Amino acid sequence: MVPEILFQPHWGKAQVIEYDQSNLAGHGGGDSKLLDDIFLGAKDNSLGHAAGYVDGAMSILTGIAANKAMATGLPVDVKTLVSL
């Protein structure tokens, strides 16, 4: 079986993206780097890819706001979802 990614844009046709996974470990090679970052500390984040807890919280709030907007049909300001 050839590994594939299913890309499903909103209101668009699903597209299958196939790729060669023969030289990659789990999760496309990202598992070992993630585990090293967690347990040994990040060695190189020169591109600013590592996310912190604030990034995680904002990601969750963005999803909550999107779900609320789809349910109500109205825009949602993320700042109104929580008070810190």
If you had to describe this structure to a student in words, what would you say it looks like?
This protein is α+β, with helices and mostly antiparallel strands and 84 residues long. It has two domains: 1-48, no CATH class; 51-84. It has two helices and two strands. The protein has helices spanning 30-40, 53-72, and strands at 4-7, 15-18. The radius of gyration is 18 Å and the shape is flat.
Number of strands: 2
Number of domains: 2
Shape: flat
Class by SSE composition: alpha+beta
H-E order: EEHH
Largest sheet: 2 strands, antiparallel
* Oligomer status: single chain
Rg calc: 18 Å
Q: What's the helical proportion of residues?
A: 25-40%
How many helices?
Answer: 2
The main sheet orders its strands as: 1-2
Approximately how much beta-strand content do the residues carry?
Answer: 5-15%
Mean pLDDT: 82
N→C terminal distance: 48 Å
Low-confidence runs (pLDDT<50, min 5 residues)?
none
List the helices and strands and how they pair.
Blueprint lengths: L3 E4 L7 E4 L11 H11 L12 H20 L12
Antiparallel strand pairs: 1-2
Short description:
By secondary structure, this protein is of the alpha+beta class. The protein contains two helices and two strands, in the order E-E-H-H. It has two domains: 1-48, no CATH class; 51-84.
List the defining traits of the structure above.
84 residues; alpha+beta; 2 domains; two-stranded antiparallel ribbon; 2 strands; 10% strand; flat
